[in-house]
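COURSE: Structural Biology Practicum
ASSIGNMENT: Worksheet 4, Part C
STUDENT ID: 0417
INSTRUCTIONS: Below are two proteins. For each, the amino acid sequence is given first, followed by its structure token string. Answer the questions at the end about the second protein only.

PROTEIN I
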Amino acid sequence: MTQHSLTNPYFKNLDAFRFLSFLGVFLSHTLVLPSPTNGISDFLRSFFTMYYLGVPFFFTLSSFLITYRLLAEKQHKNAIDLLSFYKNRILRIWPAYFILLIACFLMLPLLAGVLKIQSPSLPPVLPFLFFYANFYMIEHGVAFTFALTILWSISIEEQFYLVWGSVLKILSKNLALVIILLFVFSIIFSYCYLYVLHKDSKNLAIHSIFVLQNFCTGALIALICIKKESVFVFLKKMPPIIILSVYILLPVAYFFIQDMVLLNIIKSICYSVIIYDQCFNHHRFFNAGRSAMINYLGKISYGLYLYHAIVFVILQKGFNFFGSPQPSSFVNLFQVVVCLAVTFIVAHASYKFVESKFLALKNKTQAGVRPAR
């Protein structure tokens, strides 16, 4: 059952969506299907591979959880302990993250030497140590090992954590206005970036200001749900079929809408409604958190996300499972399953022997909502 204690808010059903979001990322990185023969097969491929979830859902979910927890703390204690907040974020994010950096910058070159194969191309370490990797990639591209390219999203999340805690502490009384202004600013910036500055849409996708759209909708639904005022009442009275249509709209919009900014807005809104539905709607069509196994996979989804790319690289380079060095090359289903299984093992080991030890330190100081990753 979902618990809504102000001192320890935890939303069980979101664990499954963590895993589904990871699975969408994983499939987009490893599985390249044959070109569809018609529009229907193309849509079905898009629907079942869940590309419409992925990293943007993580951002929205992360913003919801962090905002909800800090507002709950503010409501319960009339204050936000920023020091404790940052400490807990560090204990959750840094251990596995720096294990991956050590593996990429030290172990991969060593493995390449042992196997007498070409050493992976590596970027400067500073952007990854100080969490501005996304801006480095925008400026210099991603001509380095695939195992590190996924870390742009961790940089953005760390940037968000750094700023958002202070925003909530200082501007909580005007939070709705702040969220709306940031959301509008992100939209204006994004269109200017694309059509005035004529910058690459791939760079916009990993730009922190563009991602504000995801963070803002997650924060807004958290504010609505914790205040439980008119908008929350409106959502509670919404017919279940309307909520269900949002689940359907998400893959449909992903398939048919070409404008990346408009698509991201629609996706962000859909994500927020889904989060509300799974956390607060007592008349939802289904509970995503029914499966204990899926819940556990959601619990370790941060490790799944972090390690899947390096597992892919090692299987590809060290054991020659995948043939082509490009992650977008065709990978048959058996090989994808092998990569997924190894990623599960690595993420489970990381959680059991490393991450849980640091989480125990976190739980001694303050019980908090589980992070989005």
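PROTEIN II
(use this one for the questions)
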Amino acid sequence: MPTLMRAGPYRLFIVMADCVEPRHVHVEGNGGLAKFWLEPVSLGHSMEYAPREIHRIRALVAEQRETLLQRFDAVCQRVQP
């Protein structure tokens, strides 16, 4: 599970089997787990996070979206047109 980024208590990562899915990141930290789609940034699902924390994580993902897309592509070896 390659880590794409760490930010505060959060680790943003992907699962190699997810390379066939639309680009997204998993987020773990503070006792929770979530999945955010990157195009557009939206919550896929979450476990154990309060709505306020989901809002903070979504803002982080949105702020770092371009970097996360590049890193996702690098790990999954996607070629951009």
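ANSWER KEY EXCERPT:
Q1: The mean pLDDT is 94.
Q2: The chain has two helices and five strands.
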